[in-house]
Amino acid sequence: MRLAFFGTPDAAVPSLRALVGAGHDVELVVTRPDRRRGRGGHASASAVKLAANELGLRVAHALGDVDGYDVERGVVVAYGALVPATLLARVPMLNVHFSLLPRWRGAAPVERAILAGDVETGVDVMSLDATLDTGPIHLERRVPVGDKTAHQLTDELAELGASALVEVLASPELLAHPRPQAGEATYASKLTKETFHLVPSMSTALLARTVRLGQAFTFVDGRRLGVQRAHAVEEIDAEPGTVRMVNGAVTLVGDGGGVALDEVRPEGARAMAATAWWSGARLNEMTARWT
After folding, report:
1. Which pLDDT score is estimated for 235?
2. Which terminus of the chain faces fewer neighbouring Cβ atoms within 10 Å, N or C?
3. What would the CATH number be for the domain defined by 2-188?
């Protein structure tokens, strides 16, 4: 099938590679423009652009560029912007979405599933329409969430979605007969800096889930501390907001429990074992506070 592919981050790459591997003719890859990163301000290509270049595919950065190609269908995987209705009217499109729709429509479905404590999540291959993640579903695949990090779960869903996408394109029956979404819709609102901020008022479960997102942080005695890895600890006999050594682990005490820090990243330093940070910081266990 002659396809246009729309995607940007690492999570979209397995689908692009799967389409090429299945013999589809990817006429054009549309990805977000190169971004300037780091102190030097050097332009950095998206993961999809790098993969497309490796595969010898044409790359564009504007949605309108697809007008110059004779494609039968578009495929959208984490492109990073809404596809306008005018383009959808010309090119029918499939979308690989990383949730069990209509639960977690929107920008951050994997992270919101983790934060909510969902037992399972999955991927839906759906027809794209002009409204946000409301199209009918051609194929759905489910996985348990467990204690996976957002990175681990996203990688798993990216591979699962790639195989489901190829299956749908290979089946006239699946393509022709999608089912409408059914159930209560929830929205995966965009993550903000405060989403990752660990504070003593959070439940023990929410603290641990937030750490699993990556980028979690708190402030200990006013200094920012990134929390790379941690695990939940229940029933700590200490005041919420204090920092204690519990069974040899540096522990942030919350309301009725807390999280034991495994790996942290102090401000301006590399990641290290939490015990090494604690020893070097020389904080007073009787007065140290996290906020």
Report:
1. 84
2. C
3. 3.40.50.170
Q: Is the dihedral of CA 113, 119, 125, 129 positive or negative?
A: negative
Domains of the chain, residue spans: 2-188, 193-281
Cis previous bond, 136, omega within 30? no
The tokens of 126 are what? 């759906």
Q: Of 108, 135, 141, 105, nearest to 11 (Cα)?
A: 108
> What pLDDT is attached to residue 134?
96
List beta partners, residue 291.
Answer: none
Structure tokens at 208: 């641990």
284: left (phi over 0), alpha (psi -120 to 50) or beta: beta
193-281: what fold? Methionyl-tRNA Fmet Formyltransferase; Chain A, domain 2 (3.10.25)
To the nearest 10°, report the CA torsion of 188, 45, 49, 148. -40
pLDDT in tens, 38-52: 566 677 999 999 999
State pTM to two decimals.
0.93
Q: What is the pLDDT of residues 156-186, one digit of tens each?
A: 999 999 999 999 999 999 999 999 999 999 9
Q: Give the long-range contacts of residues 32-38, CB within 8 A, separation 24 or more.
A: 32/8, 32/61, 32/79, 32/80, 32/81, 33/61, 34/61
Q: Which residues of the chain fall below pLDDT 70?
A: 37-41
The token duo for 224 is 């920012």
